[in-house]
Amino acid sequence: FLHSEDLARAMIFAMQNINFKDLTKNKKEIQNTHLNISTNTSTSIKDLALMIKDIVGFKGNIYFNADKPDGVLRRLTDSTKLRSFGFKTEISLDKGLFMMYEWYKNQNGGGL
Questions:
Q1: Are 55 and 101 in contact (CB under 8 A)?
Q2: In angstroms, rounded to a whole number, what is the distance separating the alpha carbons of residues 3 and 15?
Q3: pTM score > 0.70 for this model?
Q4: Is 101 in contact with 56 (CB distance < 8 Å)?
Q5: I need a labelling partner for 18 at 20 to 30 A (CA). Which of 68, 69, 76, 106 fits?
Q6: Mean pLDDT for the chain?
């Protein structure tokens, strides 16, 4: 999960601070000029559900069906290259969820 404000900041950072030539060490690497943008963290669906539960103040229980497959295995996007130029994300998942929830509440006259 990546907050849209961090995504926008990363793109502006890259355009202002990174020279295309700096992304390759030699001509053989010319096709490896992409930049991954990520928080370099991963979150399970369970942890995400519990985080949302806390943010919205849900008092009920959350149940998971342990009989079903685990789903997608962990896939972490590596943003080492972008970070090596000095960029870091600023909005954590829980902060971003809280910001989104507050925005949503304000859009609906304070109620859900």
A1: yes
A2: 19
A3: yes
A4: yes
A5: 76
A6: 85
